[in-house]
Design goal:
4-stranded mixed sheet; 139 residues; globular; Ubiquitin-like (UB roll); mainly beta; homodimer
């Protein structure tokens, strides 16, 4: 038998970079996508080892959708793809920051906003800031 | 009996802002601290409702330490406190970005680096960038 015991299906997959990543009990790490142009945080999602491998190898941001339980090439259906510029790992090894270029219509958020973090705490409430850059899109 | 049934011990605690937050099955949300001066992501941690309330009310970043299972006023022991500038909620309601001023010696990372994300993916490895701004500190 030569089945892989690693986190990623396949014959052999054990690159140096993988050993520094501390996946949680669901096999995921947190991924923060940041606009390379101005540093704004655009979205927060999760990756399993395969999503991270694809992201690093293809340069196209690929997440793990916890709701759909599947790999999710960001923007594959909407055209709002994300091009990887650089990847950064934190001290605990369980969170990553990716500097990216938001392509397509420029909406990282599935609600059509540039950033998912479009609500700001003001006077005791979360107040929407700005307008969507595109009408509703699917992620 | 007048015990609270809410997520926070106390007689009554049900502010408007709390209803928009989607805590996970452990009662936590993800918190990303960003340097207000230049937008750099400094650290990623977690908050329960009480940590979030304290952060919003005191203006001092307060997290939930998953390892110590206790509230964690950032920098309380090291002096590297974080002053809240603004708080931003994402579309799913389960992640927050906080723009902050990193006080003290300027190290958000318990390893003494300005940012926890001090390792960058280069040539197939996570390579440390820069030097610590302070020697080892406790968080």
């Amino acid at each position: 038998m030569s089945e892989s015991k690693g986190p990623i299906p396949g014959p052999v997959f054990n690159p140096v970079w993988l050993s520094d990543i501390k996946f949680d009990d669901k096999g995921l790490v947190t991924a923060v996508a940041v606009d390379h142009a101005n540093g704004d945080v655009l979205m927060l999602a999760h990756m399993n080892a395969e999503a991270l491998r694809l992201t690093l190898e293809t340069g196209r941001m690929t997440y793990w959708s916890r709701s759909r339980k599947s790999l999710w090439v960001k923007g594959e259906s909407s055209g709002n793809t994300q091009k990887l510029i650089s990847a950064h790992l934190d001290c605990d090894g369980d969170a990553l920051v990716f500097r990216i270029v938001q392509e397509g219509a420029g909406a990282a958020c599935h609600e059509g906003y540039r950033s998912c973090f479009s609500r700001k705490f003001e006077n005791g409430k979360w107040m929407r800031q700005g307008k969507p850059v595109v009408p509703q899109e699917s992620p």
